[in-house]
Design brief:
It contains nine helices and ten strands. The chain is α/β, with parallel strands linked by helices. It has a domain of 67 residues. The strands form two sheets. Strands 6-7-8-3-9-10 form a six-stranded mixed beta sheet, with helices on both faces. A four-stranded antiparallel beta sheet has the order 2-1-4-5, with helices on one face. It binds adenosine-5'-diphosphate and magnesium ion (MG). Adenosine-5'-diphosphate (ADP) binds next to helix 1.
Length: 249
């Protein structure tokens, strides 16, 4: 379980996180929404120790990552797989080499076993037998799926997604939603997912919990049904604006 307590972060005089409190529930799909620029990616980066807060704490299975040194953070990061918005594949490596990179670099897994794991993860994202392809031969949606296979390679306990469907067409987005859902349900004990998204469809389709950030804090926290039903004016305004954007497409 991940507990975020009173997390504060400013860049210069810009207060981005103003006291974020949030529990990420174990084995669930936790979705984080909020306007562009409200601090969602900044929050994710704190969870994996890529940023240090000005104040506050993040407990990962009881251990405070904000108090750790680089070496300790590196160790705890092994619990995570991430599919970040900018997480491009390495263009000079094959798909298979991309997916296996963490196993090759961070574990002592023998090569034949790495090959087995890589092919299993590629099957999981519906790209069986694509090991020898180069990233340049893939569509945007396929590259996202390879990125997902790479994030899954080490069988992480937590998987973090930052805007996994942004920039993809609706059908490809739905495929990614379905994959995130099957990943979430594929393990026992179940993997814990944290998905930052603009895509309200993702919330309703696969979310167990949803938190909405507003003005540097968690403004709403509940189930997707509770989100749908709330009369909170700030949430309503956000959802209506999202609907308008959808309608324009
Ligand atoms: N490393 C950084 N240095 C300065 N400002 C940053 C940095 N990272 C993010 N910000 C600012 O913090 C705010 C929140 O960014 P971000 O978390 O990326 O928003 P989003 O909710 O869209 O993911 C933005 O105003 C952004 O410009
Ligand atoms: Mg972002």
């Amino acid at each position: 379980m991940i507990e975020i307590k009173d997390l504060k972060k400013s860049f210069g005089n810009k207060e981005v996180l103003r006291g974020v409190n949030l529990n990420i529930e174990e084995g669930k799909t936790n979705v984080i929404i909020g306007a562009s620029g409200c601090g969602k990616s900044v929050l994710l980066k704190h969870i994996v120790g890529l940023l240090k807060p000005d104040e506050g704490h993040i407990y990962i299975d009881g251990e405070d990552i904000t108090a750790m040194n680089e070496k300790q953070i590196y160790a705890i990061r092994k619990k995570f797989g991430f599919l970040f918005q900018s997480a491009a594949l390495f263009d000079s490596m094959t798909v298979g080499e991309n997916v296996g990179i963490a196993l090759r670099e961070n574990t002592l897994t023998p090569a034949p076993e790495i090959n087995n794991i890589v092919s299993q993860k590629l099957r999981m994202v519906d790209l069986p037998g694509t090991e020898i392809l180069m990233p340049s031969e893939l569509s945007g949606g396929m590259r996202k799926r390879v990125g997902l296979a790479r994030a899954l390679a080490t069988d992480p306990q937590y998987i973090l997604y930052d805007e996994p469907t942004t920039g993809l067409d609706p059908i490809t987005s739905e495929t990614i939603d379905e994959l995130m859902d099957s990943v979430a349900r594929s393990k026992d004990p179940k993997v814990t997912s944290i998905i930052v998204t603009h895509d309200i469809f993702t919330v309703y389709e696969i979310g167990d919990r949803v938190a909405m950030m507003f003005e540097g804090k968690v403004h709403f926290n509940g189930t997707p049904d509770e989100l749908r039903a709330t009369s909170d004016p700030i949430v309503r305004q956000f959802l209506e604006r999202t609907d308008e954007k959808k309608a324009k497409h």
